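pasting for the record
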Amino acid sequence: MLAGEFISLLIVVVAFAVVGNVLNSKGLKGFLGEASVSLMLSRLGVENYTIFNDLTIRKPDGGTSQIDHVVVSNFGIFVIETKNYQGWIFGDEWQEQWTQSFRNGKKKRISNPIHQNYGHIKALMEYLGEEDESMFYSIICFGSRATLKKVSVNNPQVKVISSRSLISTIKSYKEMKVSYFRLNRYGLMLEKIGRTDRTTRKEHIEHVKQAIQVKKNKVAADICPKCGEDLVIRKSKFGSFKGCSNYPSCRFVVKRLG
């Protein structure tokens, strides 16, 4: 996508959002974040990198997996999850949830994006028929409005970065991981799903809605949606909250109660 086309697209989107309220604020922010990263990735160059944006993969269990960006090269397959958040970000690779802290003192729990992107990588590996995880790299890319205040990651296959470091991070990998034969095969397979029709996208949205509803139903029945154990009322110095009775093996928490 050229810079001129990108700017024109932004103008159209904003106009629709203001006039017709077509997109809610959350959807608009997500779209703009992904569009911005798509523009950045276009600067990698077509000689060594092939870029695929917004891929929806059908999974054998009937579900779908939506991947923001995939970059295929001889140096590996980079699976990128874009987060257009703001504020300070805290978390580590093992936590179920991370923390987003705002200037007004408010805090918000967010799902661990590393876990989320690992699910995308597994779906992509299954679709490509590839079992070697060493050629796949997970990149969690936060927008410029976010500050990675304290994020701990030890896995060399995972990078949590600011968008300004995206290109340099990808180009830092120099070791040949993917043969030219595999590179061509993967490119053809990804081009195929890159032409996803509206039906597949609707199926993905419906699948996500169903998963959220199942989780809500389990919580309403005081069942932990993560491990299946009972949910109980617990207390901490911050107040009461509902959490899994299987703590500390399971750290699922519903919400603060007071």
